[in-house]
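ugh ok so i messed up the first submission bc i forgot one of the chains. this is the corrected input, ALL of the components this time, i swear. 334 residues overall. if the numbers dont match what u have on ur side tell me asap before i send this to the collaborators (the ones from the other lab, u know who)
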Amino acid sequence: MPKQLGIDLGTANVLVYVRGRGIVINEPSVVAISAKTGKVKAVGLEARNMLGREPQETIEVVRPMREGVIADYVVTQEMLKYFINKASGRVSVVRPEVMICVPAGVTGVERRAVRDAALHAGARRAYLISEPLAAAIGARVPVSDPSGNMIIDIGGGTTEVAVISLNGLVVWRSIRVGGNKLDEAIASYVKRVHKLRIGERTAEEVKIAIGSAMSVTEDIRMEIRGRDEVAGLPRTISVSANEISEALTEPLQQIIEAVRSVLDRTPPELSSDVIDKGMILTGGGAMLRYLPELLMDVTGVPCYVADDPLSCVAIGTGLALEHIEVLRDSLDEM
Ligand code: ADP
Ligand code: MG
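and heres the new structure output, hopefully the right one now
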């Protein structure tokens, strides 16, 4: 039997699930390319460590996936090839079958680009599954029941909100707001209020360390280093968790709007299921402190974070391959 790989081709991270072994690859979706020859120099973790530190004449470090879709086709293909080879083992002669997730909102052209990239990267057969469905399967939500299940997946580039019943998306909304927009909001707040320029990695570190979706009563602070806007010199400042939660207001509001718009359009029978069972949060963004509380506050619907939210989509793609017969109607086979 050919090897079966489930791939979560995310904007921020690529995870590969191998049937029978679980998640074997979990690396940032970053590629370092030689500026002179265009050849790939490093992929994943190794490439990410060069980000923002590269000599621009010789090395270009890129994130080939942007806002959930392929921004740079050739580089995405190289990245997939690298991860597929790494997960299949060099000695493998039989090309693997792969299941890759794509955001619910992508166009036919974008779906084809993902499929072609997988086939060119060495897959024997490539199936596509919509990301909210994969996230729900990975979160062990009973998606095949005739009952409404609501999932909110917050990744690096996109947030996908969907109500799923009978293995299909009944109502969904996909927005190009995710963890990256939260990082940008932090960087622009720090620049505006503290006149300090910080890089995207620093902004993300601040978000993960002290970020919060709602204001907190404790005085939690963090020191951050950046470059003074005026003097141009390095400077250290201290920011509070409440400042960061203020900085995150706008992108969080957009996520709330997406959740509201799905709830608004959900048929009554399913919406009563959702009220009973609550909404399930997946993706790295689900780990932002007090986000479930905020969503529950504004919608009145209970909200829970899935176990291991960063792995749900990858596990879901892998499980979907194992249950391909049941899901046949919900997948794109190519
Ligand atoms: P993608 O599917 O787009 O690759 P992931 O689901 O892997 O994205 O999530 C990556 C995002 O999650 C990044 O924006 C990252 O900053 C964010 N993230 C990771 N851990 C946390 C955390 N503890 N709190 C808030 N955001 C987090
Ligand atoms: Mg994702």
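quick check: The pocket of adenosine-5'-diphosphate (ligand 1) is lined by residues 10-13, 155-157, 178-180, 204, 207-208, 211, 283-285, 287-288, 310 (CB under 6 Å). that seems consistent at least. The radius of gyration is 20 Å.
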